[in-house]
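Morning - arginine inputs below, output right after.
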Amino acid sequence: MVKWLQEKYNAEIYTFTADLGQEFVDPSRFKMIEEKAYKLGAVKHFIVDCKEMFVKDYVFPTIKANGLYQGIYPLSTAIGRPLIAIEAVKIAKRENINVLAHGCTGKGNDQIRINVTAKAYAPEIEVLQPMIEWNMGRDEEMKYAEQNGIPISSQNKKYSTDENLFGRSVECDILEYPNEIPPEDSREWTISPQKAPDKPEYLVINFKEGIPIGINGDSLKPVELIKKIHDIGCKHGVGRIEHMEDRAIGLKSRETYEVPAALILIKAHKDLEKYVSTKHENSFKTIIDQKWTELVYDGLWVDPLRDDLEAFINELNRKVTGDVTVELFKGNINVVARDSPFGLYDINLATYDTKSSFDQRLSYGFIPIWGLQSRMGFIIKNKSKSLDI
Ligand code: ARG
């Protein structure tokens, strides 16, 4: 893109890389990107450490909203985009830059997420998408890079990937065929479940007001906590996902992910939240969560509805404090125990032992009233039918 923008617009190029924790895979990557930018003639390269901000302001709200798009994808790429757009806008304003160019194609969700956010924060800045303008396919892009001496890593030649602390998205090549099983070389973070340890590992995740604050009683800073859960999850081969996804733009696409930390934390959070909330809160929360998730997936991070939904989510999460025990074993994540001072479970009521304080005789009055309309409806609907015995 740098080369193309220079050639086409004779523009002065400033480049920006947001550190969302993707370097935990390859620490030398940021240096390489910086060198590459200067080699291609960038005036200045900016790299901003956004890890803490990413976890606190994007990952934690996703956990509180149990954010799984279509019940499967934990939004790892989707939540990185508004942050990147906002940070890019900050740099642009500071440096008096009036055009923002990003590398999204015209076929995905990321273009929406970046464009909508950037334009909301800086309506005066023009947003350019070279990928749309040059209209090259991935194969042609590779050729263009080769002709211009632009190095591309072997992994990126095959797959299109996006990585941050919360997950890794992988597309392209054989993955574009939904009837093909994702090959092992499309996975980079997680060990294959077959090769994972033969013994399960138990993790106690400590939550305070809906936010994970520690593991096994040791409190951890936000970024450290995600990294630690990531490492343990990768070791057990958990968080491998493949998904036929409905993009905002209308395309169905085959997506694969490695999202160990995201899945462990969302599963654990959801369990604890359910434990401390009433049946009515739980059923309403799933509606709110789904709305929040779709809004964020569809690129509308800035929509005021997100604030409105979060007001509810945060209020409900005030009581989501406690510990959740998660079992990790050969690709599986199972919540196996939980504890909270706000749990609505009462063993004195629930126990099947004789000591229970629950007065079973009340059922005689409750059931006829509870079932009244349903029984009436059934009888009237089936008046003419007799039981076939
Ligand atoms: N489908 C995912 C999303 O829309 C991931 C997109 C980014 N994937 C990639 N390979 N660059 O959030």
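Note: The chain has a mean pLDDT of 95.

O.
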